[in-house]
Design goal:
With about 425 residues, this protein is α+β, with helices and mostly antiparallel strands. The chain is built from 13 helices and 14 strands.
């Protein structure tokens, strides 16, 4: 309705087969690619010059109309309003972004990227729909546009709010395979199994055979044996032989593990000499919940063990026989990295502790391998690294949350990083009416 029918000299047909009439000249003003096709004789298999028809099979007619609307008005049409965030809109924006990428509509690409980013910030689970749409259109090659990168970054850093919040069920198998193979996803192997299981649950009969094929990228040896013999076995993704081999491998590795491979803390320099020494991580202890952390320095007599533990927001060092009387204490840093689990130089003497306070050096467990460091000949990386994201200096997104693997309960504290806040799209509409690319 933005131009008279007798001024239309081009028909565009989208994936739904609905013809859309428009003007070659107007589109060519904003797309150097279409300018070459329409007016400079550039060959294009999708364009039939005799009938002036352009076929765009990767987007719906509504998306084509939105692109034309933007060329005439400098803004997206009202039905592309991000105030109604849903899967359909997310996929339409992804298609529009790809259209802008293919035909180099600069202004459309800028406006679409801002809208899609705003949509993801409003409802992060929609990152799954955008990633799936662009994976389906582009395949699993290395050419990845900015919206797909932003969606991938969101899924990597917030898998609980995206993939495990139902978003993975929207995906086709190509996108799921890219996720399962991805080495930068902020999950361990059991969570990756949960992602695959969640995807399968939507259409079990169709997706289960595919899930069995994709399951080969999950390293069973890094999953708790109790979970292996429970949920993992019951899923049917693995043969019983594979489960048994993984359980045996874990059992043998624990039995033969060298003390130097254990997660531990070196405590030294304390005025109370009894606390100095090497503390090893205790995985299971009566009275210790999953949110708490305990390291123990064992004494040969069996009665003078010393514990280093996190209780609430404070670290303490005390005799294991009486955790209430602490030698030394230190506040827990909420912004610590994974390699700085235990405070190093912030300890203070309390109760029976003598100055000077200790210095603690945390040594990670060399056998506690996360998915970020896994590598194998079959699990090649399809998705780009975080260094290939839009902002290479993006700070690590820190999240606090607890997921009970046995009850399937999810309880997370939602946070927004500085990078997300700085990149929130403005609500000011920018017009591109006079821009010619």
């Amino acid at each position: 309705g933005m131009m008279k029918s007798h001024m239309c000299d081009l028909t565009i047909i989208g994936s739904d087969g609905v013809p859309v009439e428009t003007s070659k000249f107007v589109l060519a003003c904003y797309s150097p690619v279409l300018e070459e096709i329409f007016f400079k004789g550039r060959q294009c298999q999708q364009y039939i010059e005799e009938s002036a028809t352009l076929f765009i099979d990767f987007c719906h007619s509504s998306v084509i109309k939105a692109a034309i609307h933007h060329c005439f008005s400098g803004e997206l049409p009202p039905d592309f309003d991000t105030e109604r965030p849903n899967e359909e809109l997310a996929r339409q924006l992804a298609q529009l972004d790809h259209l802008a990428l293919v035909y180099r509509f600069g202004a459309i690409g800028t406006g679409t990227y801002r809208a899609a980013r705003k949509l993801i910030n409003k409802r992060s689970v929609l990152a799954c729909a955008i990633f799936d749409e662009l994976s389906y259109r582009e395949g699993s090659g290395n050419k990845v546009d900015s919206i797909k990168r932003y969606a991938l970054d969101t899924m990597r850093d917030m898998p609980m709010d995206t993939l495990l919040a139902g978003g993975v069920q929207w995906m086709k198998d190509a996108a799921v395979e890219a996720i399962i193979k991805d080495q930068d996803m902020d999950v361990d192997e059991f969570y990756m199994f949960k992602i695959l299981k969640s995807w399968t649950s939507a259409e079990d009969q169709i997706r289960h055979p595919i899930a069995q094929r994709l399951a080969k990228y999950i390293e069973l040896k890094f999953i708790d044996p109790e979970l292996l013999t429970g949920q993992v076995r019951e899923s049917g993704f693995f043969e019983q032989r594979q489960i048994n081999e993984a359980v045996k491998l874990i059992s043998d590795s624990l039995a033969n593990r060298d003390p130097s491979e254990m997660e531990r803390v070196l405590v030294e320099g304390a005025g109370s000499d009894i606390v100095n020494g090497i503390y090893c991580r205790v995985e299971e202890e009566i009275g210790i919940s999953e949110e708490e952390i305990l390291f123990v320095k064992e004494d040969p007599d069996g009665y003078s063990d010393v514990g280093l533990y996190l209780w609430g927001t404070k670290w303490n060092i005390a005799m294991c026989s009486d955790y209430s009387n602490c030698f030394y204490s230190s506040a827990d840093d909420p912004n610590k990295s994974a390699l700085e689990l235990v405070p190093r130089n912030t300890w203070e003497a309390s109760y029976g502790g003598q100055d000077p306070p200790p210095k603690c050096t945390y040594v990670p467990n060399t056998t506690r391998v996360q998915r970020l460091s896994l590598s194998s000949s079959t699990a090649e990386k399809l998705a780009p690294n975080l260094e290939e994201m839009l902002d290479p200096t993006i700070a690590e997104k820190r999240r606090s949350g607890y997921f009970d693997k046995r009850t399937h309960d999810v309880a997370e504290k939602r946070t927004m990083t500085l990078e997300q806040m700085m990149n929130l799209p403005e609500d000011v509409k920018v017009a591109f009416k006079g821009e010619l690319l």
